[in-house]
Amino acid sequence: MSTSLLYHGFGIQGPYHHVSTKYENGAVIFNIAHNSNIKCPECRSRSVTKKGIKPRRFHGAPIGNKPTYICINSQRVRCGDCGITRFLPLRFAPREKVRYTKGFEKYVLSL
């Protein structure tokens, strides 16, 4: 599967690529990952060091009657220039600490 379904179907664009798709209990689960060109979320420097991951799972807009989920290992980085240690922001999430995508938010508001 290409990354274009993530972009056109779910509005996920930017530094992500499709890794795999699973079908479990009637749900479609898309596994995505950050691209390799990682920058500091604060100063945009490329001199960053990976400092761990956190698995995250987001509700996506459904495909027909099937629920969809977007899974990503959120990358934590430390910047060599400004010294901060943070998780990379996820552009497809409307805010921090939510478990749904912007596309799912738009879908719910349109009901």
Q: How is this structure best described in words?
A:
- 14% of the residues lie in helices and 45% in strands.
- By secondary structure, it is mainly beta.
- It has one domain.
- Strands 1, 2, 3, 4 and 5 form a 5-stranded mixed beta sheet that branches.
- Strand 4 and strand 5 form a beta hairpin.
Helix-strand pattern: HEEEEEH
- Helical fraction equals 10-25%
Q: Can you count the beta strands?
A: 5
Could you give a short account of the major beta sheet?
5 strands, mixed
Mean pLDDT: 90
Q: C-alpha Rg, in Å?
A: 15 Å
| Category from helices, strands and their pairing | mainly beta
> How far apart lie the N and C ends?
29 Å
The coarse overall form would be: elongated
Number of H- or I-type helical stretches: 2
Uncertain segments of ≥5 residues (pLDDT<50)? none
How much of the sequence lies in strands comes to over 45%
Number of domains: 1
Provide keyphrases for this structure:
111 residues, mainly beta, 5-stranded mixed sheet, single chain
Summarize the structure.
It contains two helices and five strands; from the N terminus they run αβββββα. It is mainly beta and 111 residues long.
